[in-house]
Each structure stands twice: as structure tokens, then as C-alpha cells.
Design brief:
59 residues; mainly alpha
């Protein structure tokens, strides 16, 4: 009872499709993926101490 099966995933997808439309779903997925990637990068940096930011500009 605690797990999500295929029928539940299909229902969630259909509801999202009705709410956001077909064109918005890829944008939402990209945003979610970028957020997860940033979170993992932050965790990785926290494990290895402070590191230089990737986008530093020298004046």
C-alpha cells in the first residue's frame, strides 16, 4: 500500500497533462532535472569542502 504502481503513475501523468498541457510538460521536466542536478552538485561540494565556484570572473 505504500508504493506507487504503474496505474497510479499513468493517472498522475494524465492529470499533469490536463493541468499544464502537452507543451509545458517538457519544460517542467527540464526544470525538475536541473533542480535535482544542482542539489546533487551542492551535496557533492559539501562532502568535499569548499570549492571554487565554476563561474568566477576575474577583473
Amino acid at each position: 500500500m505504500g508504493s506507487i504502481g504503474v496505474p497510479e503513475l499513468i493517472l498522475i501523468f494524465v492529470i499533469l497533462l490536463l493541468i499544464f498541457g502537452g507543451k509545458k510538460i517538457p519544460e517542467l521536466a527540464r526544470g525538475l532535472g536541473a533542480g535535482i542536478r544542482n542539489f546533487k552538485d551542492a551535496l557533492h561540494e559539501g562532502e568535499h569542502g569548499e570549492q571554487k565556484p565554476k563561474d568566477t570572473k576575474e577583473n
